[in-house]
Design a protein that fits this description.
Shape: globular
Number of helices: 12
Oligomer: single chain
Structural class: mainly alpha
Helix content: 40-55%
């Protein structure tokens, strides 16, 4: 499934654009960025409710995700029908590779936090360099790849395992280390991209694509990451207790960027 049809590979960061274009020319990916002037970005744009404490919202998104990961890890690999019957309400002990104290996180939280750390580090570098607009210099794919390979990953998936082997052991560049896989590894770590680009769907999609292709060079994986990041941004921008009208919900749907 193609997420978009524009194959120009437009990207504001020269190094990232070069790597992305290399991936496209090698025929490894059938999706890339739409131009910033594409009309559909305006349809997805939204404004945050006034008076929100964004520091609190961002903490809630990341810590809440970690809590859900730690509590839900006991259902790893369990069929949905069986998981619904179990109705887990507390942290559960695991065995084997799932060992660790109750409340231990998995790769979902590890890679989410590494992505967040990479975004913050890129922001610091851009600030020190006097970059006029930080938003176009927050996603450094090579820095992200280094962070993904410097520690043991808990419950690592097959695609990420192959990426680690390609980047860490074989020394392939980040744009060649990822594999063709429609796994959920990109969506599970996507929240930080939505948070740093709150209200900016073009940059949410652009950086979702860049963070995805590091490990998963597949259009469905990219679409899933973009949807998750966009949903996180929307949820973080709404005042607590407020419900969307049907018209708002329809207008906010990410359209062709996400699989249906």
């Amino acid at each position: 499934m193609a997420v978009v049809t524009d194959r120009r590979g437009e990207c504001d960061d020269p190094a990232a654009a070069s790597g992305l274009l290399h991936t496209l020319r090698a025929g490894r990916l059938d999706a890339t960025m739409l131009a910033p002037a594409e009309p559909r970005w305006a349809q997805l744009r939204f404004a945050a409710a006034p008076g929100l404490d964004f520091r609190d919202r961002f903490r809630g998104a990341l810590i809440g995700g970690a809590i859900g990961d730690a509590m839900g890890r006991a259902n790893e690999g369990v069929r949905p029908s069986e998981a619904r019957k179990r109705q887990i309400r507390d942290y559960q002990p695991w065995h084997g590779w799932r060992s660790g104290p109750k409340g231990t996180i998995t790769d979902d939280t590890q890679m989410t936090m590494w992505l967040a750390e990479s975004l913050l580090a890129a922001a610091r570098r851009a600030t020190e360099a006097g970059t006029p607009d930080l938003r176009d210099h927050l996603l450094d794919p090579d820095d992200l790849a280094r962070r993904f390979t410097r520690e043991r990953i808990r419950g690592i998936g097959q695609a990420t395992r192959e990426f680690v082997r390609n980047y860490g052991d074989r020394g392939l560049p980040w744009y060649e280390a990822g594999v063709v896989s429609a796994g959920n590894g990109t969506a599970m770590r996507a929240a930080p991209v939505g948070l740093v680009h709150l209200g900016d769907p073009y940059r949410i999609y652009r950086d979702s694509l860049l963070q995805s292709v590091v490990t998963h060079q597949d259009s469905m994986a990219i679409a899933a990451a973009a949807c998750q990041a966009y949903a996180t941004a929307r949820a973080s921008a709404i005042r607590r207790g407020r419900k969307w009208s049907p018209k708002e919900a329809k207008r906010s749907r990410p359209g062709g960027l996400c699989p249906r």
